[in-house]
Structure formats: structure tokens, C-alpha cells
Amino acid sequence: MSEEKRRARPAVQYGPTAATVSENVKRLREVRNMTIYSLSGALGKVGRPITPSAVAKIEKQQRQVSVDDLMALAAVLRVNPSALLLPLTDDPAAGIEITGVGTVSAADAWDWMDGARPIKVDPADDSTDLLDFDLYARPSRRRRAREVPRLLTQDAGRLLLELAKEGRSGLVINPELPEDEERDDG
Fold it and tell me: Which residues, 6+ apart, have CB-to-CB distance to 94 below 8 Å?
């Protein structure tokens, strides 16, 4: 085969999230008192076989983790997937780097990962960012419709509540939320 026809395999680029996943897999494996071999065996039992040498490479950041690998690792290590994707801190003063996002506070990263809010909110238009996040990132039963009226103008909030009561907005109304007159918006 000539040199022109032979293509060099591009070097795999690992980002900050891959580094965090590698560290967390090793940390959680050790916390669970699992060897690389027992983790490999457990992954095989759940239908996602990864050889012991591949597990070692994951921990050394020499092998990428596919989304299916990530889910199986989380299941076998008995954690949620976000426990593999983020460092084990939610200190607002701690900055963490996330692939595609940059450096953000650990608290903001966990809020985003837990589905509480978007990772970045435009300070000039935060009500739209929050509403958009709720509509497209959360199933209808997990949206926080009770907070929407506080985030929007009163008129828009009332309109959304009326649509929700009629079942036309996709939002779920919290029956414990007081009406506008009773609620303290301060």
C-alpha cells in the first residue's frame, strides 16, 4: 500500500469532560472495592462488555467512553451518569471546565446536570433562557411551571397559567402555588 493511500489515524483528542470521566470511573471503582477485572466482568453481565485492558485505558484516558459505555458504567457503579461527567464538588467557588462550555462554577454545572437550569443564562434575558430550557430540556411533568410566573412579566405569566390550566401549554401546574394576589413576589 502506498503512502498516499495509507492514512494516518488522527490522534484522539480528549477534552476536560473525558478527563473527569476517567478520574471518576477509577474513583468509583475503588470506592466499590472493585478491581479492573471485576468491573469488566460486571459490564459484561449487563451486556456492555469492556475488556479489563480497555477499562484500564479508560482510567488512564487512553480510551474514549461512548455514551453507551457511560450509561453502563454508571449502572454498574450504581451512580447517575452525571456522577461520571462532573467532579465530585458543587462548591460555587470551584471552577470546573466542561467540554463545549468552558469554565463554570461547580454549583452551576451540577444545577445544569440535574436539569435545574441552563448552564449559561443571558443576564439581559434570563426569563426566556429559563423558559426555553424548561420547554425543551425537561419532560412536561418535570418542568417548573410554578416558577414561570415569577420569571416572566405578570401578563405573560398569567397567560401561561391560563394555558396550563386548560392543558394547552405542556406545563404542569402546582396546585399548592398561591394565586397572584396571595403570592409574595418580593
Answer: 87, 105, 106
